[in-house]
Design brief:
344 residues, Hypothetical protein af1432
């Protein structure tokens, strides 16, 4: 398939196409990005000893700063590479903690937290799938940068109840291309990184965007990133809805009701998240609500701690303490130190 810029996309004054899969910011749009931003500058990466649940919040603040100043920062590429390495190491040192960070973390900037959550899940998926190191680096990097071109719009949409405005829709339609063009501003020319970013909204059934590509034209890393993007969005709360429980999210994906996904990718996602993953909340037979902290003797009997007494542990395989159902709960940042101790 020849990937040519679709004629129905509104790219005026924002993008130019230099060659196939090579997009550049127009002079006017680049000047607008250079003009200034109220976004805080990137923060330092968390210390290695910081528990994953709290570290994810600091990582999101760092990514938010990178997003807000990406074109202006001379060290954008260097900062991204440091983020990628940090997240890859986190996933290996505390795999359960990374999943708990995705499920527990509150956020103030949706796009940045979504990017960090996607990157954490991408690192876990890459490890479980046994991907080569180069593929793992590209997948994590693409997860962090796929929404560079629409950070402000996606932050707005996470807070609004109504549908996107015309201008928001136009930005969403071309944000994979804008994100790729912004990466080139930072000197990132790795072709597979750009492919993953540009095609992360394409679908195997040909109903994706911006190209409507067919399955055979979508590289495996782009297909995997699309799945990670979809499931992470389901697991994050919005102003107008609570987060969807992992069990419900996986059931929808596994059934393939919305769209088809690679079976091997779904299988690994089920292994990573399971029925009641670390960081999820459950209701027990005795009516108590509890936080899952690790897998137990079986997939349906995790180790948990009651919300009322978080220093006690419960083996949910015991009679009277079986898991009755998953529940969705929203916690605040001030509660994170209490919960993060389990994955230190």
């Amino acid at each position: 398939m020849a990937f040519q810029l679709p004629s129905n996309l509104f790219t005026s004054n924002r993008l130019t196409e230099e060659a196939e899969f090579v997009y550049r910011l127009s002079g006017k749009f680049r000047a607008a990005l250079l003009a200034g931003s109220d976004a805080p500058l990137p923060t330092n990466l968390p210390e290695p000893a910081t528990p994953p649940v709290q570290a994810a919040q600091q990582l999101a603040r760092c990514l938010s700063g990178i997003q807000g100043h990406f074109v202006r920062l001379d060290e954008s590429n260097k900062l991204l590479q440091a983020l990628i390495a940090h997240i890859a190491q986190r996933a290996q040192q505390s795999p359960d903690g990374c999943i708990a960070a995705v499920l527990l973390g509150p956020y103030t900037q949706y796009t940045a937290q979504h990017g960090i959550n996607c990157a954490l899940l991408a690192a876990r998926m890459a490890d479980n799938l046994g991907l080569p190191q180069d593929d793992k680096t590209i997948l994590i990097g693409a997860a962090l940068t796929m929404n560079l071109g629409s950070a402000d719009v996606q932050n707005q949409l996470a807070e609004q109840n109504g549908p996107p405005t015309t201008l928001q829709k136009q930005t969403l339609d071309i944000h994979p291309l804008l994100s790729s063009a912004m990466l080139r501003e930072a000197g990132i020319d790795e072709s597979r990184w750009h492919e993953a970013v540009i095609l992360h909204h394409e679908r195997r059934d040909g109903r994706g965007y911006p190209f409507g590509a067919k399955e055979e034209d979508i590289p495996p890393l782009a297909q995997l990133l699309h799945l990670i993007d979809i499931v992470t969005a389901k697991l994050m709360p919005r102003t107008y809805r609570p987060r969807i429980t992992p069990k419900a999210a996986l059931s929808t994906l596994y059934a393939g009701a919305a769209e088809p996904f690679e079976a091997a990718h779904i299988t690994q996602l089920v292994k990573i998240l399971g029925i009641y993953p670390p960081g999820s909340f459950v209701e027990l037979e005795n009516g108590e609500r509890a936080l899952v902290i690790k897998n137990g003797r079986s997939a349906t009997a995790p180790l948990a701690v009651p919300i009322r007494a978080p220093n006690e542990s419960i083996d949910t395989s015991r009679p009277g303490y079986h898991v009755k159902s998953s529940v969705s709960m929203r916690i605040e940042a001030r509660h994170l130190p209490l919960f993060s101790q389990y994955w230190s």
